[in-house]
Amino acid sequence: MAKKKEVTVEDKLRALYDLQLIDSRIDEIKNTRGELPLEVKDLEDEIAGLQTRLNNFSTDIENLETSIANKKNNIEESKSLSKKYTEQQKNVRNNREFDSLTKEIEFQDLEIQLAEKHISEFQVKIAQKNEIFEVAKEKVKEKEVHLKHKLSELNSILEETEKEETLLLSKSEDFGKLIEERLFKAYKKIRSNVRNGLAVVTIERGASGGSFFTIPPQRQVEIAARKKIITDEHSGRILIDSQLAEEEKKKMSKFFSS
Q: What's the predicted TM-score (pTM) here?
């Protein structure tokens, strides 16, 4: 039975850097979209908020119109009662009954006046809400035109890059499976915590890529030896030597151009 090939530290470093190159290319694609996805999301949220406001205004106006209809019904009921009491006054037996009916008629008149006052107030509120409603409706139209324009821009970019991004995301997943779980998790964690998503970097001018802190010569020798995983003590990034990086870039360039 053939002996399983041992995975060396150098193999792990190469696999990690290959994954970094793929993920960095995905980042580049996402960056071409700029702030467009956020702008689209903000516009969609703003339109949804305005639409909710419009719906609330519509409900308020409907409720006010219902209240006006109810008050008009109350007025008709009060007029009917007032008419009934007026007729009853013609057949009273004494002044006490007449005075009692007079008070009822006066009460119904007050009810009518109060209802008419409420109707006037409701109509003013409806006019105010209709005015605000129309302004909000125009704002929704403006935002929808703006959103349509932004979506067109975004979709144009997505059409150009979607195929490549889908392939790269699939390859990123495949390459990630080649790396032991503990190391892969560490890579992901570093990548999420550092600027530009660079978790694996080369030594540039005696310092780790993206850092101004110098790496001691002895440490640089250890990195070049590729015998253990070494991280930058300041940023936490995994460090590799420039020769290994160039070899992997050359290898992966064929993959990217295919």
A: 0.58
